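Reviewer 2 asked us to include a model.

Predict the structure of this chain.
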Amino acid sequence: MDLKILAKKQKYYVVWEGLTPGIYLSWEDCQKQIFGQAAAKYKAFDSMAEAEYASKRKYHEFISKASSKTVVNESKSNILPDSISVDAACSGNPGVMEYQCVETMSKKQIFHQGPFKDGTNNIGEFLGLVHALALLKKHENDHTAIYTDSITAISWVKNKKAKTNLALTKHNAVIFDLIERAESWLKTNTFKNKIIKWNTESWGEIPADFGRK
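Predicted model (C-alpha cells):
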C-alpha cells in the first residue's frame, strides 16, 4: 500500500526545563530533552519569533487554560505507524492491577498480564513497558517505538529502578518478583527502541487503554 506523505506545518518547540533547554525544530528532538524528566516544561509554537520570545520569558506565562489546549494540540499524523502501545489499569491503590500491549494502529493485542492483587497503576505501567522492551529485544527488533502515557514509568525505566512505596503482602509477592526481574533485565540489556510519551491531550486515550475511566 502506498502511503501519502502530507506536508506538516512547521512547529517550534521551546523547552524551559529538560536535559538541555532551548528551541527545537521537531517533536522528536524535543522529546529527547524531556524524556524521563518528570519536571519537564515545554510548549509548541507556530513561528520562530513566538518561540524565541517565549524562551526568554517564564513558562507559566504561556500555560493559561485558554492557550494550553491550543499549543498542546498535535496532529494524529505524527503518531508513528511502526509502534506499539502499553497501558495498565488498577482498581484501587493498591488494588487489582493488570497491563497490556497492543499494536498502536490496529489495537491488536500483543500481550496481557494479570490481574494481580495488591498492585498499583504505576507498577503496571512500568512492567508493561519493560515487558514490551524485552519482547522486541527477543525478536531482534530495534526499530519499533513504544508509546506509554506514564511519565513515571518512563522515569523508572531510565533509572532502571521501580521507585514504588508499595508494601509487600501475602497477595502481591508475584508482583515484587516481576519488578525484580524487570529491573534485572534493564541492568543487563540495552535497547535502541524509542520510548515516547503518548499525547493524550491531542490524541485521546492511548490505544492500549482498558476503557474503564
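The CA atoms of residues 89 and 210 lie 7 Å apart. Residues 121-138 form the longest helix (18 residues). We have added this to the supplementary material.
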